[in-house]
UniProtKB/TrEMBL annotation:
Keywords: Cell membrane, Membrane, Transmembrane, Transmembrane helix, Transport. One of its GO terms (molecular function) is transmembrane transporter activity. It is found in: Cell membrane. One of its GO terms (cellular component) is plasma membrane. InterPro entries: PHBA_efflux_AaeB/fusaric-R. The chain crosses the membrane at residues 37-55, 88-105, 111-129, 136-153, 159-185, 416-432, 444-463, 469-487, 494-514, 520-542. It is a multi-pass membrane protein. This is FUSC family protein. Pfam families: FUSC.
Amino acid sequence: MNAPPAAPSPDQRAARRAFTWFRAQTADWAGTEGQRWIFVAKAMLAAFAALWLSFRLGLEAPYTALATTVVLALPSSGMVLEKALHRFLGTLVGCSAALTLVALFPQSPTVLFLGLALWVALCTGGAAMHRNQQSYSFVLAGYTAVMIAAPAVDAPGNVFTLAVTRVTEVSLGIICSAVVHDVFFPRRHSGAVMRTVQARYAGFIDFCRQVLAHRITPADAELNHLKFAADIAALESGRAAAFFEAGHSRSQTRQLHAFNAAFMTALTTFYTLHRLSHRLRAAGDGPVLALVEPMYAHLAQAMGDELTPARLAQMRSKLADDSAAAQAQLAAGPELDRARHIDFDTAVELLERFAGNLADFAALYHGLAQQKRQQVSDPGAYSPKTPPAIIVASGVRAGATLLVTAAMWYWLAWPATVNAILMATIFCALASSSPRPTVLVRQVLIGFLISMPFAFITEFLLVTRADSFYPLVLAALPLFAFGAYLSSSPRWSGVGIGVGMFSATLVVPANLMHYDVESFIASELSLTMGVAVAFVMFKVLLPEHTMGHRGHVAAALWQEARNACGARLHRLKRRFDNRVRDLLSQLNAAAGPSPNAQTRAVVRQGLTLLELGHAAIELRQLIAASHAGSARDSLETVLRQLAAYLDAPTRTAGEAVLASILHAGTAVRAALPDAHPERRARLHMALTDLHSIYTSLLDQLSGESNVPTPAA
C-alpha cells in the first residue's frame, strides 16, 4: 500500500504563493513590455552575429551586414522572411542596373547621373504602385544602384567589386536575421492573422447589431466603414507575411482571400441596407417602417448569439416568415403608392441578400477559427490600387532629389556629399509609399539628430578602448539597443530606424580601422543633410501628390465608378470592391485618427459611388443574361445615362438618369406577370438596383451628400 503524499511545508506553501503572485504581477508586462525587450534582444543578437561573421570573413564594409539586420528587425518571423526575400531581390536588380549604367557611361558622370535619376524614378514609381513588401524590392533596386554607381564615378573599374561586396554583405545580414528571428523565441505572424480575423468578425457583428438597433449615427457608420477598409488591407498584408512561415498552406491563403472577399460583399450589402433604412427614417415613412422594422429587430437579436450553421438557418427561416407576414399585412392594408412599395420590396430583397452574405462570411470565419480546411474557390488576392498621379509624382520627386543632391556634390566639391546623395535617395524612395511621408522623414531626421552626440561618444570614447570583439559589443550595445527599442513602438518607429541606421553607418569599425574625428563629423553632417534634403523635397515638390491625399482619392473613386459601367465583366465586382476599399484605406491612413470634415465628405462620396458601382455591375450582369425586349433596352439606357453622368456629373445629366430609371422601372414591372420564376427573380433584383441608383442620385442632386466631384 502506497503512503499518502506528504503535505507541503509552510515554507513550500509560502514559496508557491510568492511564485503565483509574481507570475500574476508580471503577466501583463510579459505580454507587452516583455515582448519588446525580447525583440530588442533578438535584434541585437542578429546584428552582432552579422558583424562578427563579417570580421571573420574579412568583408570590406561590415556595417552593411549590420545595417541589414537593423532594417530587417521586425516583430514576427514571417515579416522578417518576407522583407528579407524582397531585400535580396532588390539588391540583385539594383547591382545589375549599376553595372549596366557604369558600363554604358564610364567617362560621362553627367549622363550617368541622368540615367541613375531615371532608374530611381522608375523604381520609386513602381514602389508607390505596389504598396506592399513587393514595393520594397523596387525601393532597394533604385537606391542600391545609386550606392554602387555613385562611389564609382571617379573609379569605374571598382564598380564590380563594390557590387559583389554589397550582395555578399546584404546576404550575410539576411541570413543572420532570418535564423535569429525564426529560431529564437519566434513570433509567428499566423497567430496575429488569426487575431485580426477574430477581431474583424466580432467588430463587424457588433457594428451590424448597433446599426440595426439604431444606436449609431450615419457619420459614425461612415467612419466605421473607413476603418473596415483599413482592416481589409491589414489582413492581406498579414496574410502575405504569414505565407513565409512553416505551416501556412495554400488552402489557408485561399480561405483568407475568400474571407476578405466575403467580408467586402457583406459590408457593401449592409451599407446599402443601412442607407435605405436611414432614408426611410429621415423621411418619416411610417407605413414602410412598420413593415420592415420587425425584420431589423429580429435580425439584430439573432446576431446577438453565436452564428452557428443551425442558428443561421433559423435566422433565415425567421426572416422568410417575417417577409411573408409583412407581405400579407401589406396586401390586407391600404394600398401603398408606387414609391413606398418599391422601398418595401427593396428592403426585403436587401435583407435576404445580407442574410445570405452573412451566412457565407460566418462559415468562412468558423472554418478559419477551427482550423478546418474548406474547399473554396480563390476569388483572388486583395490588390492595392494607387492613383496614377501619385505614382508619377513619386517617381519625379525621387529622380529630382537625386539630381539636386548630385548638383550639390558638384558645386560644393565636398567628398562627403556622396552620403547626402545616398540618404536623400533612400528616404525619398522609402517614404513615397507612406501616407504621411513628411512625418516619417521627420522622425528619421530626429533619430539622426539624437544619434549624433551619442555616436560620437560611442566611437571615440568607448569603441577606441575596445581591444577585441566582445568589448566592442559592450561599447556599441547601448546605442543600438536604444534604437531597436524605439523601433518596436509604432509611435516612435521612425526615430528608432533613424537611430539604428545612423549608428550602423558611423559607429561600426572596419577591419582596418582609421579613427578620424574630422571625417566622422563630416559623415555625420552629410548623412543628416541628406535626410533633411528628402524632407524639404517632400515639402516643396508636388506636396499634395502623396499617398492618400483626399483630392486624388476622390478623383480615383469617380474613375472606378466609371469603370463599373464599362470595364470587362469577368470578376469586375471583386476588382471594383478591392479598389474602392483600397482607396478608402489610403484615405484612412493619411487622415490619421481624427478625419476632418473634408475627409469625411470624401468617405461619403466613396460609399455612394460604391453603391452606384455595385448596382451598375449587377444591372450589366442581368442584361448579359436577359433576352431582347423592352425591359432589357430600358436597362441599357439607364447604364448609358449613368455612365454619361459619371463622366460629367451635372444636374442635367443626373436628371436624365432619373428619368431613364423611372421609364425602366415601368418596363420591368410590365414584364413581371408573364415571366417564369427564374426571370422574375432577376427582374426583382433589377428593380432593387434601379431603386438603389435612384435614391443615391437623389441624395447627390439634392446636395445631401455634399461631396466633391471630379472637377472639384
